[in-house]
Design a protein that fits this description.
The chain is mainly β. It has four helices and 13 strands. InterPro entries: DUF3601.
Length: 187
């Protein structure tokens, strides 16, 4: 499962659970845990709603029930950064390796201020702990308004470097999706 206990999540593709309850786009909650009942192919997600009340979301892992939702749960529910913001930026990333891919999801929602520039976005990505850290000095890049932005870690310290002069223009509110490209790291 791509969700970890304590993680704040948002529904990005609406779905209906086994009890007929609709979970609309934008619904948020904190993931607590999951339980699987093999006899009935039942998967229960236990979540804390924004008011703090615990709720059970029941799903059945069968093709005629909620199996398609469970199979694509990482496309229905995404972890969200803890930062405040008025703009949600959908992040994807390259695959690095199995060990890091298990701990670091390929999809992530970053909540950030709409007026954030490229450097602020890169800093928020690192602060959220989103990209995988494989080896020493892992380095990623993304395209921002036609210019490149590098981000990663050097000697376990985060770094951000905007390419070009002047620095890339544009605001986060102008971008809905951002893909991080893996440039490598020292093993």
């Amino acid at each position: 499962m791509h969700l970890t206990p304590g993680q704040r999540c948002r529904v990005v593709c609406a779905f209906v659970d086994h009890d007929g309850i609709v979970h609309p786009v934008g619904e948020t909650w904190r993931f607590l845990r999951s339980d699987f009942l093999p006899y009935e192919d039942g998967l229960s997600l236990f979540v804390a709603m924004p008011g703090g009340a615990e709720r059970q979301i029941r799903l059945q892992w069968r093709p005629e029930a909620e199996g398609p939702v469970i199979d694509a749960l990482d496309r229905h529910v995404l972890p969200v950064s803890a930062g405040p913001g008025d703009h949600a930026l959908f992040l994807t990333r390259d695959s690095v390796g199995l060990a890091d891919d298990v701990r670091s999801p390929h999809h992530f929602l970053l909540e950030i201020a709409g007026d954030a520039d490229a450097v602020m976005v890169a800093e928020a990505i690192l602060a959220a702990g989103y990209p995988a850290r494989s080896g020493r000095c892992p380095t990623w890049s993304f395209d921002w308004a036609g210019a490149g932005v590098l981000l990663g870690y050097r000697d376990d310290r985060p770094f951000v470097e905007a390419q070009g002069s002047p620095p890339p223009a544009g605001r986060a509110s102008d971008v809905d999706r951002l893909h991080l490209t893996w440039l490598g790291g020292i093993a």
